[in-house]
Design a protein that fits this description.
The chain is of the alpha/beta class. Helix content is about 15%, strand content about 25%.
């Protein structure tokens, strides 16, 4: 077949294009998403690299140190990246996340986000809030999380995390909110949790935690809500729970707790509005001190075969 110069040029261009496509199909996603970043800030280029490793596409062509501050979900203080809030992510969290040491707020979510929490997360010592939730993240909570001593809020809920709660979590003495619920965590609640005296909310429910409730829980005197339900906790309710005089909600149902209801609950938890002790193995009489809870709106003690007696409660409470 004879070709004109124009048609031959077209065939060559088509062949070149097909070769390019063939080569591109053999390149891994990480290679295909090579960083395009000309910013003068190494932190900015590191951020672009992390974004691309997590299945996203972006380029930064500006040489400005603040070039990354206009990226989706990114906020800066001056030219320094201090906040990231990325949703609907895929892939896994790369260890390079530990390079962003100026971060104060980090939120990563998305049902396609999988893999484990990298130990390099412990490098982010300026973090005040960490939200890694509603993902497919699995594996254990790295003990390096105990390095985040400025952390005030920790959300690791609604994942597939397993293993025990690391005792290093007791290093987070500025923590006010701890959410580890809806995972597959096992083992006992570490007594070091009693170090977190600024805690206001602690939700550990819907896990596979076992052992007893540590008496050190009574150190959390600023606590408003304690949610430990739907685990495999056993042993008695510690009397030290009476120290939690700010408590408004105490949810211990659907465990294997035994022994009596401590009267300290009625004597000292006068702010309590919700008390859920049902579906355990509690025994003995319901302490009359429960009648002291004038703010009580809900009281559930059913499905404790060894529990007996009656108590007078606020006439507006649901029993």
């Amino acid at each position: 077949m004879l070709l004109s110069a124009d048609s031959a040029s077209t065939v060559n261009a088509h062949s070149a294009m097909m070769l390019t496509l063939a080569i591109a199909s053999m390149i891994s996603p990480a290679q295909a998403q090579a960083v395009t970043c000309t910013s003068s800030s190494p932190q900015c280029c590191s951020l672009v690299r992390i974004w691309q490793l997590m299945g996203q596409t972006t380029t930064v062509s500006s040489t400005s140190a603040t070039a990354c501050c206009s990226m989706y979900g990114v906020a800066c203080s001056g030219s320094v990246v201090t906040q990231i809030n990325w949703q609907t992510l895929t892939g896994s969290i790369p260890p390079e996340i530990g390079n962003l040491t100026s971060l104060e707020w980090l939120g990563l979510s998305g049902y396609q986000l999988s893999g484990s929490i990298p130990p390099e997360i412990g490098n982010l010592v300026n973090l005040q809030e960490l939200r890694l939730y509603y993902t497919q993240l699995s594996g254990s909570i790295p003990p390096e999380i105990g390095n985040l001593v400025n952390l005030q809020e920790l959300y690791l809920n609604n994942n597939h995390l397993s293993g025990s709660i690391p005792p290093e979590i007791g290093n987070l003495v500025n923590l006010q909110e701890l959410y580890l619920h809806n995972n597959q965590l096992s083992g006992s609640i570490p007594p070091e949790i009693g170090n977190l005296k600024n805690l206001q909310y602690i939700w550990l429910y819907n896990n596979q935690l076992s052992g007893s409730i540590p008496p050190e829980i009574g150190n959390l005197v600023n606590l408003y809500e304690l949610g430990l339900y739907s685990n495999q906790l056993s042993g008695p309710i510690p009397s030290e729970i009476g120290n939690l005089t700010s408590l408004q909600s105490l949810d211990l149902f659907n465990n294997q707790l035994t022994g009596p209801i401590p009267p300290e609950i009625g004597n000292y938890l006068t702010s309590l509005q919700w008390l859920w002790l049902n579906d355990n193995q509690l025994t003995g009489p319901i302490p009359p001190e429960i009648g002291n809870l004038k703010n009580l709106q809900i009281l559930h003690v059913h499905n404790n075969p060894g529990l007996n007696g009656t108590v007078s409660v606020n006439c507006g409470a649901k029993v």
